[in-house]
């Protein structure tokens, strides 16, 4: 294997994902960069997700499926995948999101050229039916630890990390916002995240109770500030107010 063509491990948790998981997997198989492995950890799905996964597992030996015996949440599923990942680089893709065909190739080149350990890209929002919402989330040039506390703009579906440079990754076992806590743990080491400002992914916005989900996300952000990052109340409130402002801007 050429040093210029390293293995990329794609981390995908799945749970009752039968409506979208096929599109997600096909967006990986259509990548112009082909030296990847996709590790899908199914978190005790009760629909026909396992049947779909088994079909792809048989069709493509780069796709590896692991079935959990007890439902543990996205953090447990992602950590299980990370433990089995063989690639120097890891990328994250949830079971209802998709990548543009040149996502891996462009992002890896961006990282190798600049010797970046942690990168992310821009992305666009789509409905459950796959209809574009004409809303793109741009990637700022650079994000530090303090920047991330105030603006959670990094989309999990766009992240790629060089484990040789950033070290091993383990997500905290919390039900939501474990991705935010993970990015903060990396940035806290003094590693900055660098944005490739190209629209290279599609983030699916679920229709049911969007306002409820946003409120839940806000509460979990506060939890991360206070319980994971252990910020004092004043700093947590300062960061939360900035987070709320940027969250509104992101959806306008």
* Rg on CA atoms, Å: 17 Å
The helix/strand class is alpha/beta
Number of strands: 10
**Low-confidence region ranges:** 207-212
What's the N-to-C terminus distance?
Answer: 45 Å
Any idea how many domains?
A: 1
Q: Tell me the CATH topology.
A: Spore Coat Polysaccharide Biosynthesis Protein SpsA, Chain A
Biggest sheet, open or closed, and with what strands and sense? 10 strands, mixed
CATH superfamily: Spore Coat Polysaccharide Biosynthesis Protein SpsA, Chain A
Q: Could you characterize the architecture of this molecule?
A:
- It contains nine helices and ten strands.
- Helix 1 links the parallel strand 1 and strand 2.
- Helix 8 runs antiparallel to helix 9.
- The longest helix has 19 residues.
- About 2% of the residues have low confidence.
- It is α/β, with parallel strands linked by helices.
- The protein starts with 7 loop residues before the first strand and ends with a helix.
- It has a single domain, classed as Spore Coat Polysaccharide Biosynthesis Protein SpsA, Chain A.
- 36% of the residues are buried.
- Strands 1, 2, 3, 4, 5, 6, 7, 8, 9 and 10 form a ten-stranded mixed β-sheet that branches.
Notable characteristics:
single chain; 23% strand; Spore Coat Polysaccharide Biosynthesis Protein SpsA, Chain A; globular; alpha/beta
Concise account of the structure shown:
The chain is built from 9 helices and 10 strands. The chain is α/β, with parallel strands linked by helices.
């Amino acid at each position: 294997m050429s040093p210029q063509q390293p293995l990329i491990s794609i981390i995908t948790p799945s749970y009752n994902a039968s409506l979208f998981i096929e599109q997600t997997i096909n967006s990986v198989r259509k990548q112009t960069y082909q030296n990847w492995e996709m590790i899908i950890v199914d978190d005790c799905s009760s629909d026909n997700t396992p049947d779909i996964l088994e079909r792809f597992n048989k069709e493509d030996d780069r796709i590896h499926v692991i079935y959990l015996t007890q439902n543990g949440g996205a953090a447990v599923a992602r950590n299980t995948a990370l433990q089995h990942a063989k690639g120097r680089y890891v990328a994250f893709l949830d079971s209802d999101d998709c990548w543009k065909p040149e996502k891996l190739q462009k992002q890896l080149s961006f990282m190798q050229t600049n010797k970046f350990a942690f990168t992310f890209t821009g992305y666009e929002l789509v409905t459950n039916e796959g209809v574009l919402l004409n809303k793109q989330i741009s990637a700022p040039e650079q994000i530090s630890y303090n920047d991330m506390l105030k603006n959670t703009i990094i989309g999990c579906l766009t992240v790629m990390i060089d484990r040789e440079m950033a070290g091993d990754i383990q997500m905290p076992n919390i039900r939501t916002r474990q991705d935010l806590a993970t990015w903060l743990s990396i940035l806290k080491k003094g590693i900055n995240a660098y944005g490739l400002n190209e629209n290279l992914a599609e983030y699916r916005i679920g229709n049911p109770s969007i306002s409820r989900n946003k409120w839940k996300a806000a509460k979990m952000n506060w939890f991360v500030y206070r319980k994971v990052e252990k910020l004092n109340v004043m700093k947590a409130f300062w960061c939360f107010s900035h987070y709320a402002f940027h969250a509104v801007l992101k959806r306008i």
